[in-house]
Design goal:
830 residues; alpha+beta; 5-stranded antiparallel beta sheet; 20% strand
């Protein structure tokens, strides 16, 4: 017991002594780290200022600016800690300022500066210096302009340096920071009372009365624990000092806590030691000896029945635990090994298989993974595949058949074909597809193996197709006869009206009023005939894959809004919009999808003769965007829903006889939507209960929304030409057909080609938003057919456009050249 008390007393003394020693060491270490970090930060900022002034001084435009008597010139000083305040100037050799990031002071205000003449010949870093432009004690970093015409100088205020260092590096100890010149002659910066001490001499101060690091008085006479560090290649030193009294007080508090813990522990030990030793310590020692001799899963030797019963129970529990752990560990290791081997084998089989293989999402049809053989066979890179869907490989005329198969319940293992797939070079290949469903991450996917047709398979296929064509010939002939009969009937009706009224006009004398009535009927029937022929030709081009589409990101909300504005009737029942917030961009041919929406809205108006609300909505559904048009009109009988999208089909009902139409609009809509990889359909509760038409389009994948240059142009042909010119100059691009879509894509673009005449939001409005969000740093080339008034041209110049070009031969090449040069140039700014 005496020994325990003596040890506790000695421990108390040692704890207090060591506590003070540790407190000093920790405070000194904090000061050493802070001084080093502050010196590094100041040196880094000075180096950055030296690089910036040197680069700007080397700019060939600077001598010209110095030589001009006056002119528009603006620099930017974006200061950062610790040099947060200052300005950047181009100074003539006589000391006058020619260009500055602040208001230019008149006269040769730096003519008397001692550093100016030295800076004309070589780079200079000097401090302290009273800046006549601001009246603040400052440091100057200057670089000479070629020919001795002047210098480029970055002048930074020293007063904010000390508080900035204290704020970022002072820490909980609230360290003092002091920056001095060589030999500690002058104060350059101080974190305490900076306005009093910056630029003042150190001679006669308490700090100057002591030397070196460690315990030392500060400028106010307070004892601190200092350390210092040199600032790069400058003759400056950074001192960081911790308050010695505060450090020792914190050490004493910690020592007292530790001493209390020691004394409390000693007391508890005296009370407990006799209780636990004989009942617990000795039996545990025996158990420890047994455990050391045990192996994983092996039995534990029996511990004698002396001591607490809990100890013997612990030994038995230990043996059971070891056996359980060993069994579970072995089982887990075996399972993990099997999984690793299986994954490695699968990856080897997938990547190294000689046949093309891929996985795609069954909901969005987007590629999820492809093997090397797929990239080699089809010509696309892996990154290009990840931005594509399965429909991008299909020929346009095969897409409806493929989507029809996708909509049907798929067997566990399926083999279809042959399919004609498009290669990147434009050629096609015939393949047989073997597939089965899998779960790939969070996706419901399908694994696909594509096999090229062998010669024997091709011959066998040709034989089968020959028989099929022979059997189909009769059916095709009957369908052709039916089609001719339908078309002839549809054409005969307007032609009969036109011919009949023409005969009346040619053979009879009619009044002026009758002539106008007859001509109005002939005009109406002629337009109906023209619409019928145009719709029929468009449908044939779509079915034959001859109607070209240009897929690009599009703002579906903007397309819907424009279509609604087109069909809104002044004074009539307004069309209600129900659009999901933050709808993603979709991958569509904008003109074609606009045609689909317009057709559905036109039908909703026509087949709602008594009025009633019309609702247009859009929302994300199963990885696609679904658009719908809902009305309260005549409705559709159940037996007609499956035939609505067929050619020339119209619902036979007495209430629709006076409603004109070609019967081709919905068939065209179906082909357009399926060409996009989407689905189209209709619902109705029956006659008189309205209807709801809907279709889906794919969402743009993230990687398909980037490019060096954003082309904002509604003419797809001209946009394609600009893309080709930019690609020839090594620049990637992304196309937006309207300003609303461009607003989503411009955040990642480095340059913009902009047409002013756009559907929806105008090009001028887009340019205004661009400058408000991105500033003047992004180059914009305006390309337009619009005849600009002088005020419009002046507004574009004020908006900082790179050039305004009129569309014509060579315009795309000129725009690409201008952007290429703008993006290649380096802009020097702080």
């Amino acid at each position: 017991m005496v020994v325990l008390v003596a040890v506790a007393a000695l421990a108390g003394v040692a704890v207090r002594t060591l506590g003070q020693q540790d407190a000093r060491q920790v405070a000194t270490a904090d000061a050493r780290f802070a001084a080093s970090a502050a010196a590094t930060e100041i040196a880094g900022d000075l180096l950055l200022l030296q690089q910036v002034t040197a680069k700007l001084a080397a700019n060939p435009q600077v001598p010209a600016i110095i030589g001009l008597p006056a002119g528009p010139c603006t620099l930017t000083f974006a200061g950062a800690s610790p040099f947060s305040a200052g300005h950047l100037d181009v100074i003539k050799s006589d000391g006058s300022v020619k260009c500055s990031s602040r208001a230019i002071a008149p006269g040769a205000i730096y003519g008397a500066a001692s550093w100016l003449q030295a800076a004309i010949n070589s780079p200079v870093t000097a401090a302290p210096f009273l800046d006549p432009a601001t009246g603040e004690i400052s440091a100057v970093v200057a670089a000479p302009v070629a020919g001795g015409a002047g210098v480029v100088a970055a002048i930074v205020e020293l007063a904010p340096v000390g508080p900035s260092l204290a704020a970022t590096l002072g820490g909980a100890r609230q360290l003092e920071f002091l920056v001095t010149t060589n030999h500690d002659t002058t104060v350059l910066a101080r974190s305490l009372q900076p306005s009093r001490w910056v630029g003042q001499p150190l001679a006669g101060t308490a700090f100057a009365g002591s030397a070196g690091t460690g315990e030392r008085s500060d400028l106010d006479g307070r004892t601190r624990l200092y350390d210092r560090s040199a600032v790069g290649s400058t003759p400056w030193f950074v001192y960081a000092g911790a308050d010695e009294a505060a450090a020792l007080a914190a050490g004493d508090l910690s020592s007292n806590r530790e001493l209390a813990i020691i004394l409390g522990g000693a007391g508890i030990m005296l009370v407990v030691i006799f209780v636990v030793y004989r009942r617990i310590v000795d039996p545990i020692r025996q158990l420890s000896l047994v455990i050391r001799g045990s192996t994983v899963g092996g039995a534990v030797d029996t511990v004698g029945m002396m001591g607490a019963s809990e100890v013997t129970g612990l030994a038995e529990d230990f043996a059971k635990l070891m056996a359980t752990v060993k069994s579970e560990l072995v089982e887990r290791l075996n399972s993990e090994q099997v999984a690793v081997v299986s994954e490695r084998n699968y990856r080897t089989l997938f990547e190294g298989h000689p046949q093309p293989m891929w996985l795609y999402d069954v909901d969005t049809l987007a590629f999820l993974e492809v093997n090397d053989s797929t990239c080699e066979r089809y010509g696309y890179t892996r990154e290009e595949f990840m931005a594509m869907t399965i429909c991008d490989l299909q020929q346009p005329q095969d897409i409806p058949k493929f989507l029809e198969l996708q909509a049907m319940p798929m067997p566990i293992s399926d083999r279809t074909g042959p399919w004609r797939h498009l290669l990147k070079d434009g050629s096609t290949t015939q393949v047989l597809i073997t597939s089965h469903p899998v779960i790939f991450g969070d996706h419901h996917a399908r694994f696909v193996l594509a096999e090229d047709l062998t010669e024997s398979q091709r011959l066998e296929l040709e034989l089968v197709e020959s028989h099929a064509r022979a059997e189909h010939s009769a059916e095709l002939s009957r369908a052709k006869d039916e089609m001719i009969a339908v078309v002839s009937h549809e054409l005969r009706t307007p032609l009969a009206s036109i011919v009949g009224f023409a005969e009346l006009l040619a053979t009879r004398d009619v009044t002026a009023a009758q002539r106008n009535d007859y001509l109005a009927v002939m005009l109406q029937e002629g337009r109906r005939l023209t619409a019928l022929v145009n719709d029929f030709l468009d449908l044939r081009r779509l079915e034959g894959g001859h109607l070209s589409m240009r897929f690009a990101p599009a703002d579906i909300k903007a397309l819907i809004t424009r279509a609604v504005e087109l069909f809104s009737v002044p004074g009539g029942t307004p069309i209600e919009l129900r659009l999901q917030d933050d709808l993603p961009l979709v991958r569509v041919d904008g003109d074609s999808v606009f045609r689909v929406i317009a057709n559905l809205l036109s039908n909703a108006r026509k087949y709602s003769p008594l009025g009633g609300s019309i609702i247009v909505g859009a929302a994300v559904l199963n990885g696609m965007v679904e658009i719908y048009v809902q009305d309260e009109g005549l409705g559709i009988p159940a037996q007609a829903l499956t035939r609505l999208f067929g050619k020339f089909y119209r619902v036979e009902a007495a209430d629709r006889g006076a409603i004109s139409g070609t019967g081709l609009g919905l068939a065209i809509c179906k082909n357009i939507v399926e060409s996009h990889g989407g689905k189209v359909g209709a619902r109705s509760e029956g006659l008189g209960k309205g209807s709801r038409f809907f279709f889906t389009v794919p969402i743009v994948r993230e990687e398909a929304q980037t490019g060096d240059v954003l082309i904002v142009e509604d003419d797809s042909g001209f946009a394609h030409l600009v893309e080709a010119e930019l690609e020839a100059r090594g620049l990637s691009s992304i196309w937006a057909a309207d300003a609303e879509t461009a607003g989503h894509l411009v955040t990642r673009a480095r340059g913009v080609v902009l047409d002013l005449l756009l559907p929806g939001l105008s090009g001028e409005a887009f340019l205004h938003r661009l400058r408000a969000t991105r500033g003047a740093g992004i180059p914009v080339v305006v390309v337009t057919l619009k005849d600009l008034a002088p005020a419009e041209s002046l507004a574009l110049q004020k908006a900082g456009v790179t050039a305004v070009l009129r569309k014509g031969p060579g315009t795309a090449s000129t725009a690409a050249d201008l952007l290429s040069r703008s993006l290649a140039a380096e802009l020097v700014a702080i």
